[in-house]
C-alpha cells in the first residue's frame, strides 16, 4: 500500500482580472501521483508550476478545491483541519521549509523547540526527553552546545539542520522538503544534501522533495515528477528523465542548466534551431 | 552568513522599565524619574505634609513658602500635598486603561488573525469603525450617560483605545502568522492556544510594549482633559487635570503655582513615558531574525 | 589581464569597513582586480565574501559611515576624487548596475516608460528621440511589444520581464561597464538562460565590459572571460574562466567546484566543513585557514599574498605543492 496517494488534485483561486471581472487562476490542474513507504519523489518545476501548492496541500497547510490526499490509506478530510486531525497527521507527515530565517521561532532556543515537539507527542519523562533531544541534534550534525542557542545566533545551514531535527522528532513517515536547500550557500547545501541522504538511509523516512534544481534532485530522489503550469508533464525515475527526457519542456529545462561547455542561448536562437530540424 | 545578535525585546510596560538594556542613558534616566513619580504617588500619605482636602480659609491663596512648598489654593488647601495625592488618580487611570486596552486589544487581534478568513476581515472593519471615533467624544458620551467621576471616563477610554492597540497588534501578528515557523507549528499539531500564546505573542511583544506605553501617555492627557472640563473625579477628590482647572482663576490673579505645578506634572510624565515608548517602538521595528 | 589596453576598471588593495551596531566591521580585506574594456569578469563567492560590497564600492554607493581604503580607478581617474557633478555623471553614464531584485529598485507607482525615460530625458530635450531609443533597446532585450509595455506598471510584469527592463535601462545609458549583481538568482533557469544570453550578446555587440557577480560557478564559467573567486573579503584566486574551472589552484575554489551536485549521477558530495565566514570573522592568517583541508601552521598566522602561478593569481601559501592534489580532485568533480 502506498504511503501517500494524491488523486486528481485541483486548486484554483478567484482573482481580479485585468479588465475588472474575476478570473479563475488554476494553480494545480489535476495532479495525481503516489509514493511508497521509504521512497523518494521529487516535484520539479519552475515558478508557477504549482509544486509548492501541491506540497502544502499534502502537508495540510492548504486545502485543495477538489481531489483527494490519502495518507496510509486514510483520506485527509477536506476543509480546515481540527486540532485533533492535525495532531494525528503530524505523526505521518512533516515539513521543512525553504527560508531558514523564517522557519524557526526566534524567541525559542533550539533545545526548547525540539522538546516542545516531544512533549506534545510523546510521554517521555524529563530525562528521556533530554536524551532524545541530544540524539536528534547529533543526528543532524549539530553540537550539544548549540542546543542552547537561539536561531538568531545560528547560520542558515545550522537553522535548516534544526528544522530537520524538529521535523524528525515526531518520527514521521514522510518528510516534505520545500526547496529546503535552495536558500543555502553552495558549500553548505552540499552538507545538508549529504545529511538528507544519510538520514534516509538511517531512518527509512520517505521524501517528497520540491525543487527547481535538477542537480540537487538527482542526489536525493530516485523518482521525479516534472510540473508545468499546475500539471504533470513527465514522470519517471530521475535517472531516466535526466538521461532521456521525453517531454519538450523537460528537455528545455535540462538544456538551460549551466555546465561545462554550455552557452546561454536566446529563445529566438533555440526556436530557429528547433524549426530547422 | 554572520550571526547577528538578537536585540532584546522588552516585556510589558510596568515591570520592565527597570530592566531596559541597550546602554541608552536617556531612557534609563527617564525610567528612573518615572519610577520616582510612581513611588511618590504610592507613598503620598507618608510624604505629604498636609491632608490634601483639609481646608483652611484663614490661610487661603498663600504664595509658596517654607511651610507650604507650592502655596495654598482658594480654600487654603496645601497645593504640594494635593499634587502628591493627585498623582494617584492621574496615574491610576491611565494604568487601568492601558492594561485593559492592551489585554483586550491583543486578545482580539491575535484571535482574529488566528481564525483568519471572513471573521478576520469583519473584525478588521469593526476595529476601523471604532477607531474612527475620537477618544474624548466616546468619553464624553459615557459621562453624559453614566455620570462624571473616575469610572465612566476610564471605561470609556478603554473602549476608545482598544481598536488602536488591536490594529497595530493585528498587523504585526498577521505578518508573523504567515511565516514558516507558524506553519511548522500547525504541522506539529499544536493547539491554536499554544501557537498564539507561545509563538505569535512573544514575537509581537515588542510592538505591544511600544504601543501600550504610548497609549499610557495619551490616556493620561485625555483623562486630564476630561478632568479639566469637569467631567473627571468630582471635588473634593482631585487629580492633576482638575487642579489645572481649579488653579485657573488664581492664574489670572497672578498666582500660577497650582495650575503650573499640575500642568508641569502632566507634561513631565507624558514626555518621559513617550520617550520610553518611542524607543521601544524603534527597537520593535528593528528586531532582527 | 589583457596586455596593451588600459584597464577600464582598476581596483588596488581595496579595504572596506562598515559600521554595524556601533562598531566598524571589516567586510573587504584586500581586493585587487582589473577589468579591460569589453571583458567579462565573473566574481564568484558565497555569503559574506564581500562580492556585492565590491560592486557597491565601484559605484561609490556604500552605506553611510563606510570607511574605504585603497585605490579604485575608472578609466584612469580615481572614483574617490570625483566631485558631486562628476560622480553623478559617472553613475549615470559610465557605469550601470543591475540588481538581483528589480522590483525593489523600481517605483511601483510609476510606469515602465517613466522609469526608462528618466535617464535619457536628462540628456536630451527631444522626447520622441528618447522614446525611440528606449523602444529600440527594449526590442533588443527581447520585449517585442515595447510600445505597449511603456504604459504598464511593474506589478504587471513577471520577474523575468522586469529584469529585462532593468537591463534595458542599464543599456540605454550606454555605459562602458555593467555591474550585474546576482541578476538571475531570483529567476527560473529557463528565464536565466534568456537573460544571460541577452547580457552576453549586448556586451559583445556594444563592446561593454561587465562584472557578473554570482554564487553560481557554472554560470560564471559559461559567461565570463575571467573569474575572481572571493572568500571572506579576499580574492583567493583570479584566473581565466576555463583554466580556473578545469584546474583550480586554490583549495577553496577546488572545494567549491567539488561540492556542487552533479546532474549526471548521484554521489556523495565532497564538502567543505564549517560555514562561509565574513571578513571580520576570519582570524589573522589565511581567511580560509579554519576550513582548509590542507592547512599548515604558517597559514594560521600569516595572510598569504596573491601571487602568480600558471597564469592564475592565487592567495595560498602552498599553491605549488597542492597543484597535483587539486587537479585530481577537480577532475573527479567536473567529469560530466
Describe this structure in words.
The complex is a heterotrimer of chains A (277), B (289) and C (336). Chain A has helices at 51-59, 83-90, 110-121, 126-139, 156-169, 186-203, 214-220, 238-243, 248-255, 267-276; strands spanning 4-16, 22-35, 40-44, 66-71, 74-75, 93-96, 174-178, 206-211, 223-228, 231-237. With 277 residues, chain A is an alpha/beta fold. Chain A has 2 domains: 4-92 and 172-245, Rossmann fold, CATH 3.40.50.300; 110-169, no CATH class. In chain A, the strands form 2 sheets. Chain A has a 6-stranded mixed beta sheet with strand order 6-7-8-3-9-10, sandwiched between helices. In chain A, strands 2-1-4-5 form a 4-stranded antiparallel beta sheet. In chain A, helix 6 (186-203) links the parallel strand 7 and strand 8 (206-211). In chain A, helix 3 (110-121) crosses helix 4 and helix 4 (126-139) crosses helix 5. The longest helix of chain A is centred in the last third of the chain and has 18 residues, at 186-203. Chain A is globular. The model of chain A has no long low-confidence stretch (mean pLDDT 91). Chain B has a domain at 88-285: MetI-like (MetI-like fold, Orthogonal Bundle). With 289 residues, chain B is mainly alpha-helical. Helix content of chain B is 70%, strand content 0%. Chain B is built from 12 helices and no strands. In chain B, 46% of the residues are buried. Chain C is of the alpha/beta class and 336 residues long. Helix content of chain C is 37%, strand content 22%. In chain C, the strands form 2 sheets. An 8-stranded mixed beta sheet of chain C has the order 6-7-8-3-9-10-12-11, with helices on both faces. In chain C, strand 1 (9-20) and strand 2 (23-35) form a beta hairpin. In chain C, helix 3 packs parallel to helix 6 (159-172) and helix 6 (159-172) runs parallel beside helix 7 (189-206). At the A-C interface, helix 5, helix 6, helix 7, helix 9 and helix 10 of A face helix 7 and helix 8 of C.
Amino acid at each position: 500500500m502506498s504511503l501517500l496517494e494524491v488523486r486528481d488534485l485541483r486548486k484554483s483561486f478567484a482573482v481580479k482580472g485585468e479588465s475588472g471581472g474575476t478570473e479563475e487562476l488554476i494553480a494545480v490542474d489535476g495532479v495525481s501521483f503516489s509514493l511508497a513507504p521509504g521512497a523518494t519523489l521529487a516535484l520539479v518545476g519552475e515558478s508557477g508550476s504549482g509544486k509548492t501548492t501541491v506540497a502544502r496541500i499534502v502537508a495540510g497547510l492548504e486545502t485543495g478545491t477538489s481531489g483527494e490526499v490519502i495518507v496510509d490509506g486514510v483520506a485527509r478530510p477536506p476543509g480546515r483541519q481540527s486540532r485533533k486531525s492535525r495532531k494525528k497527521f503530524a505523526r505521518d507527515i512533516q515539513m521543512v521549509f525553504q527560508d531558514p530565517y523564517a522557519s524557526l521561532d526566534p524567541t525559542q532556543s533550539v533545545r526548547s523547540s525540539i522538546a516542545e515537539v516531544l512533549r506534545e507527542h510523546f510521554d517521555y519523562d524529563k530525562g528521556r526527553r533530554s536524551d532524545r533531544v541530544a540524539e536528534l541534534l547529533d543526528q543532524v550534525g549539530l553540537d550539544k552546545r548549540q542546543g542552547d542557542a537561539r536561531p538568531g545566533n545560528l547560520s542558515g545551514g545550522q537553522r535548516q539542520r534544526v528544522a530537520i531535527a524538529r521535523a524528525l522528532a515526531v518520527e514521521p513517515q514522510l518528510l516534505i522538503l520545500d526547496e529546503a536547500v535552495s536558500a543555502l550557500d553552495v558549500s553548505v547545501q552540499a552538507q545538508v544534501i549529504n545529511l538528507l541522504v544519510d538520514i534516509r538511509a538511517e531512518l527509512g523516512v520517505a521524501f517528497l522533495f520540491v525543487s527547481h534544481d535538477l542537480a540537487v534532485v538527482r542526489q536525493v530522489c530516485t523518482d521525479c515528477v516534472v510540473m508545468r503550469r499546475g500539471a504533470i508533464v513527465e514522470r519517471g525515475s530521475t535517472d531516466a528523465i535526466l538521461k532521456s527526457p521525453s517531454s519538450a519542456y523537460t528537455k528545455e529545462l535540462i538544456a538551460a542548466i549551466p555546465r561545462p561547455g554550455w552557452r546561454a542561448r536566446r529563445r529566438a536562437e533555440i526556436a530557429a534551431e528547433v524549426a530547422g530540424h | 552568513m554572520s550571526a547577528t545578535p538578537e536585540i532584546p525585546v522588552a516585556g510589558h510596560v510596568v515591570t520592565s522599565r527597570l530592566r531596559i538594556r541597550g546602554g541608552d542613558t536617556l531612557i534609563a534616566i527617564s525610567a528612573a524619574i518615572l519610577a520616582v513619580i510612581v513611588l511618590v504617588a504610592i507613598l503620598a500619605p507618608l510624604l505629604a505634609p498636609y491632608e490634601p482636602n483639609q481646608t483652611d480659609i484663614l490661610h487661603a491663596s498663600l504664595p509658596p513658602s517654607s511651610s507650604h512648598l507650592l502655596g495654598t489654593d482658594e480654600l487654603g488647601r496645601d497645593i504640594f500635598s494635593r499634587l502628591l495625592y493627585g498623582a494617584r488618580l492621574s496615574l491610576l487611570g491611565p494604568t487601568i486603561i492601558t492594561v485593559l486596552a492592551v489585554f483586550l486589544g491583543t486578545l482580539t487581534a491575535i484571535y482574529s488573525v488566528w481564525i483568519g478568513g471572513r471573521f478576520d476581515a469583519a473584525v478588521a472593519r469593526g476595529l476601523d469603525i471604532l477607531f474612527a471615533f475620537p477618544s474624548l467624544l466616546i468619553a464624553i458620551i459615557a459621562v453624559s450617560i453614566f455620570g462624571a467621576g473616575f469610572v465612566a471616563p476610564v471605561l470609556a477610554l478603554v473602549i476608545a483605545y482598544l481598536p488602536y492597540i488591536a490594529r497595530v497588534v493585528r498587523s504585526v501578528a498577521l505578518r508573523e502568522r504567515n511565516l514558516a515557523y507558524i506553519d511548522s507549528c500547525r504541522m506539529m499539531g499544536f493547539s491554536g492556544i499554544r501557537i498564539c500564546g507561545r509563538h505569535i505573542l512573544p514575537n509581537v511583544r515588542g510592538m505591544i510594549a511600544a504601543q501600550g506605553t504610548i497609549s499610557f501617555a495619551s490616556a493620561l492627557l485625555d483623562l486630564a482633559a476630561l478632568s479639566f472640563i469637569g467631567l473627571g473625579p468630582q471635588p473634593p477628590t482631585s487629580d492633576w487635570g482638575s487642579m489645572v482647572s481649579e488653579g485657573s482663576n488664581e492664574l489670572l490673579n497672578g498666582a500660577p503655582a497650582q495650575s503650573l505645578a499640575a500642568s508641569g506634572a502632566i507634561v513631565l510624565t507624558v514626555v518621559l513615558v513617550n520617550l520610553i515608548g518611542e524607543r521601544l517602538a524603534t527597537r520593535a521595528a528593528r528586531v532582527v531574525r | 589581464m589583457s596586455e596593451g589596453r588600459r584597464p577600464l576598471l582598476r581596483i588596488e588593495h581595496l579595504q572596506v569597513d562598515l559600521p554595524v551596531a556601533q562598531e566598524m566591521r571589516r567586510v573587504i580585506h584586500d581586493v585587487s582586480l582589473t577589468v579591460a574594456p569589453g571583458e567579462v569578469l565573473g566574481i564568484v563567492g558565497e555569503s559574506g565574501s564581500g562580492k556585492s560590497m565590491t560592486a557597491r564600492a565601484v559605484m561609490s554607493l556604500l552605506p553611510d559611515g563606510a570607511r574605504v581604503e585603497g585605490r579604485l580607478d575608472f578609466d584612469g581617474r580615481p572614483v574617490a576624487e570625483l566631485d558631486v557633478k562628476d560622480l553623478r555623471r559617472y553613475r549615470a553614464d559610465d557605469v550601470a548596475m543591475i540588481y538581483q531584485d528589480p522590483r525593489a529598485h523600481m517605483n511601483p507607482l510609476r510606469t515602465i516608460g517613466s522609469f526608462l525615460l528618466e535617464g535619457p530625458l536628462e540628456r536630451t530635450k527631444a522626447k520622441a528621440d528618447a522614446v525611440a531609443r528606449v523602444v529600440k533597446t527594449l526590442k533588443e532585450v527581447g520585449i517585442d511589444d515595447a510600445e505597449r509595455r511603456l504604459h504598464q506598471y511593474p506589478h504587471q510584469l513577471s520577474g523575468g520581464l522586469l529584469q529585462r527592463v532593468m537591463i534595458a535601462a542599464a543599456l540605454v545609458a550606454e555605459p562602458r561597464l555593467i555591474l550585474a549583481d546576482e541578476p538571475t538568482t531570483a529567476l527560473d533557469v529557463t528565464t536565466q538562460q534568456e537573460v544571460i544570453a541577452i547580457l552576453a550578446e549586448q556586451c559583445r555587440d556594444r563592446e561593454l565590459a561587465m562584472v557578473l557577480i554570482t554564487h553560481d560557478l557554472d554560470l560564471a564559467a559559461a559567461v565570463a572571460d575571467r573569474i575572481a573567486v572571493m572568500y571572506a573579503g579576499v580574492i583567493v584566486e583570479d584566473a581565466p574562466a576555463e583554466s580556473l574551472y578545469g584546474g583550480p589552484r586554490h583549495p577553496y575554489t577546488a572545494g567549491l567546484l567539488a561540492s556542487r551536485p552533479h546532474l549526471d549521477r548521484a554521489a556523495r558530495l565532497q564538502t567543505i566543513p564549517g560555514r562561509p565566514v565574513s571578513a571580520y570573522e576570519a582570524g589573522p592568517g589565511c581567511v580560509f585557514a579554519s576550513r582548509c583541508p590542507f592547512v599548515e601552521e604558517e597559514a594560521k598566522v600569516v595572510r598569504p599574498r596573491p601571487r602568480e602561478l600558471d597564469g592564475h593569481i592565487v592567495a595560498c601559501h602552498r599553491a605549488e605543492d597542492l597543484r597535483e592534489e587539486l587537479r585530481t580532485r577537480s577532475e573527479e568533480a567536473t567529469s560530466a
